[in-house]
Design brief:
Length: 801
């Protein structure tokens, strides 16, 4: 602020020299773009316009006084006389300094108001004849009061403003001439140029005082408001801080005294939850004990969380909650009938089961196990039972479960321990008597982490499961009201101890006709509804369904069929959303539009084109399937090569078949010592899938016989049966699945062991329709039915036929 001091002193000096009295009659004019210069003030401006630069330089060098005027519009680059106000301030140039090539900074001292009489010259800069104006001053009380008021306001403004130099405050205190005081204040007001100019043009002091006060007051109010807002904010923050601080203190004091407000309410809540959970007495006692322990722990410790989670698990379990069974058997039967086609045996068994439950509620029911290939309705039947009974339905998949802890949970000492899946399922069900489906019980594994089957045994055993103990809970939970239903694809891989506890109900798979029926009655309406379509919009012809079943799916169940129908519905929904309104009729032709080219072809005709190939029937996880057995010979030393991932039993069957052929070679017209000069290779394609079992015996034999005799196997025949070394044929399993598989593959003739004839009772007339069955007991009968008697047609011809 040294400069300001210096300037003030210089001003005083100028005044004492009486320079004001020597004001010239003509002034060169300096137009300002965006400010107004007042007498008695010092102002620093930046000059960049060529005209002004010239003027300042000359005036400075000649120590001339200049006239400062304000432009009416700051945007005008080269103002004419009419573009600036006619009242200005005469000023002396105190200092100039060069900022760069084209700009200088000029410090001006305002001297006196003037008004332009006329502009004499415009070039090289403005020159005007001027008249100086004196303030119009009357000294009275009003003027005094106005002045004091303005001064007080100015003081307050300075006090509230930041960055006001002390010198300015001092100046305000010391300046007692009203007119100059107004000019000083006005020059610092944050108002528009036109407003400032108006003050400059106000020569009557009282009016100027009022006018200045008006503007200053506005500025002061704004400052006061800003100050209030600031102090409010500061006040609020400090209040919040104070509260926080006090709360923290309170907590610390409470902790010292061994109690905590928050925890107390949490403890109370947990206690209420425990008492309301309906726990058995000893469980509740244990929960309360744990709650006591929790109370002593520090809330931010990890044991606290563990203990709290445990208590929450205990309170969340449905210890007492039960849904009420709807044991109106007619209603149950109605629902089962409505949801599922056929499955009569199962439905009947379920009704019996419920009838017993009704008469003797405490009788411990058997555990049902639905066995069958995927997609035959095991899960949906389970759901339907739950719906009919009014119970909750829970399903867990046991496939790949190897760890006992998955069933029974981890002990709480493990980090992140949780209850096992049974207890988790019960919690999800929210009732202790749900229908609980244990899916894929045949795919349980065992390893070093314990045997999940033995844990399941406890779950399923009615003698034990009223007090099932989960490792995590470490308290008994009553599972006796749960209705467990297991599902499995094959029974062989179910641990025998478990199988022993269960009553197995077989669902073997469906024939084409059944699938069409189920699709029409259940799957299509379901999918149509799920895709937001109306039933009348979509209709399937039987031929379309048969096409999907035969050429787009290859399964015993209905999963893929359902998927394909869903695909069609999705596409129709899309078309409908795009504005297509016609109803869609799906027939054999239009189906391709939605599903693309066929996915499966009948392999039979393609495969049986030369001797050495026979069609067998196998029983697999996914129901039945047809398999091709290929035999080939090449010069060698009598080795038998077997490929295609054959299990031991199947390998032995192949050996037995070969042995039988060798022993009967001459009878079949085969060279007796063929085996010495040849190696024989038997391959069963789909090489990646393991195959085992004795039921391929007769097929292996027929393939070998065809190879060695050169007689082709009939392409429309498939066979199954175990072979003995004496040429008798023994019965095999999975007859229904195998027959359905043959039918699916388009094979109409099936050779079966005669001892399996009894199994035909299980096969509905529907399934038998259009099929021929040959029941045989010796291998010679098989040969008669399976080998083509006509002369062999060369392979090439057949392909071109
Ligand atoms: P799984 O559990 O045996 O693998 P799902 O229960 O998932 O088979 O059944 C697949 C689909 O087929 C379901 O949409 C189901 O409703 C339907 N489904 C299967 N069998 C029948 C049936 N007999 N009647 C009606 N729908 C059936």
């Amino acid at each position: 602020m040294k400069i300001l001091d210096f300037l003030l002193k210089k001003r005083a000096r100028l005044k004492s020299e009486g320079s004001e009295t020597r004001l010239p009659k003509q002034l060169s004019l300096l137009p300002l773009r965006n400010s107004v210069m007042f007498p008695s003030t010092v102002m620093s401006i930046v000059v960049g316009r060529e005209k002004s630069l010239k003027q300042i330089e000359e005036a400075f060098s000649r120590k001339e006084i200049i006239g400062v005027v304000s432009q009416k519009d700051e945007k005008i680059e080269n103002p004419r006389p009419e573009d600036f106000y006619k009242t200005g301030t005469a000023a002396s140039i105190l200092r100039i300094s060069k900022l760069n090539e084209n700009t200088i900074s000029v410090i001006l001292q305002g001297l006196s108001r003037f008004s332009i009489r006329e502009v004499i010259k415009e070039e090289p800069y403005f020159l005007a004849r001027v008249d100086y104006i004196e303030d119009n001053w009357t000294s009275d009380i009003e003027a005094e009061a106005l002045f004091l008021n303005l001064k007080e306001m100015a003081r307050r403004t300075v006090a509230l403003s930041k960055n006001v130099p002390n010198e300015f405050a001092r100046m305000i205190e010391n300046l007692n001439e009203s007119g100059k005081f107004c000019d000083l204040v006005s020059s610092n007001l944050n108002i528009q140029v036109s407003e400032k100019q108006k003050i400059l043009e106000t020569f009557d002091i009282k009016t100027r005082l009022r006018y200045t006060a008006l503007h200053l007051n506005r500025e002061l109010q704004a400052l006061e408001l800003a100050d209030k807002i600031h102090s409010d904010v500061v006040g609020n923050v400090s209040k919040a801080q104070k509260e926080f601080y006090l709360k923290e203190q309170l907590k610390a004091i409470k902790k010292e005294l061994g109690e905590s407000a928050e925890e107390n309410s949490e403890m109370k809540e947990l206690k209420t939850r425990i008492t309301n959970a309906g726990m058995p007495e000893d469980v509740e006692k244990e929960a309360m004990k744990e709650l006591g322990r929790l109370g002593k722990m520090h809330p931010s410790s990890s044991e606290y969380t563990v203990s709290r989670t445990y208590i929450e698990w205990l309170t969340d379990l449905p210890w007492k909650v039960e849904t009420e069974d709807n044991l109106d058997l007619k209603n149950v039967a109605g629902i089962l009938e409505e949801d599922h086609y056929d499955l009569e045996k199962l439905k009947k068994r379920i009704i019996e089961f419920l009838a017993v439950r009704k008469l003797k509620p405490d009788k411990k029911g058997p555990i049902l196990c639905f066995a069958g290939p995927p997609g035959v309705g095991k899960t949906s039947l389970g759901k339907s039972i739950a719906k009919a009974l009014g119970r909750k339905f829970i399903r867990i998949s046991l496939g790949g479960t190897r760890d006992e802890a998955e069933i029974r949970g981890h002990r709480r000492t493990y980090v992140g321990a949780l209850p096992g899946r049974i207890i988790q399922g019960i919690k999800r069900a929210g009732a202790r008597n749900p229908v609980f489906m244990l899916d894929e019980i045949d795919k349980l594994g065992t390893d070093f982490r314990g045997d999940p089957a033995s844990a399941l045994l406890e779950v399923l055993d009615p003698e034990q499961n009223f007090a099932f103990s989960d490792h995590y809970l470490n308290l008994p939970f009553d599972l006796s009201k749960v209705m467990f239903i297991a599902t499995a694809n094959v029974l062989e891989s179910i641990p025998p101890v478990l199988l022993d506890r269960m009553e197995v109900l077989n669902i073997p798979g469906y024939s084409e006709e059944e699938k069409v029926m189920i699709a029409k009655k259940h799957i299509i309406p379901k999918q149509v509804d799920e895709h937001g379509l109306k039933e009348e919009w979509v209709s399937f012809e039987d031929s379309a369904l048969i096409d999907i079943i035969g050429n787009y799916t290859k399964e015993s169940g209905l999963r893929n069929l359902e998927r394909e129908i869903a695909t069609i519905c999705r596409m129709i929904a899309k078309e409908a959303a795009e504005g297509k309104t016609e109803n869609v009729l799906l027939n054999q032709e239009s189906i391709h539009k939605y599903l693309g080219p066929r996915k499966f072809f009948s392999e039979v005709a393609l495969r049986l084109t030369r001797p050495g190939i026979a069609t067998g029937l196998a029983w697999t996880m996914t129901g039945g399937d047809i398999i091709f057995i290929e035999a080939s010979k090449m010069p060698g030393k009598g080795n038998l090569i077997l490929t295609g991932q054959l299990g031991d039993v199947m390998k032995e069957s192949a050996q037995a078949a070969l042995t039988y052929i060798r022993s009967q070679a001459t009878n079949y017209g085969i060279e007796e010592n063929f085996y010495d000069k040849n190696d024989i290779h038997i391959h069963i394609p789909a090489g990646a899938i393991p195959k085992d079992g004795p039921s391929a015996g007769i097929t292996l034999f027929i393939a070998l016989l065809s190879l060695l005799t050169g007689e082709q196997v009939k392409s429309d025949v498939a066979m199954t049966g175990e072979i003995t070394l004496r040429g008798t044929v023994l019965p095999v399993g999975g007859i229904k699945e195998k027959i359905l598989a043959a039918k699916r593959a388009g094979i109409r003739k099936v050779i079966l062991p005669s001892q399996n004839e009894k199994d035909m009772e299980e096969i509905s007339p529907d399934h038998r329709k259009d099929m021929e069955f040959y029941f045989i007991s010796t291998i010679d009968e098989v040969v008669e039915k399976a080998i083509e008697k006509e002369p062999l047609i060369p392979m090439m011809q057949k392909i071109h036929a």
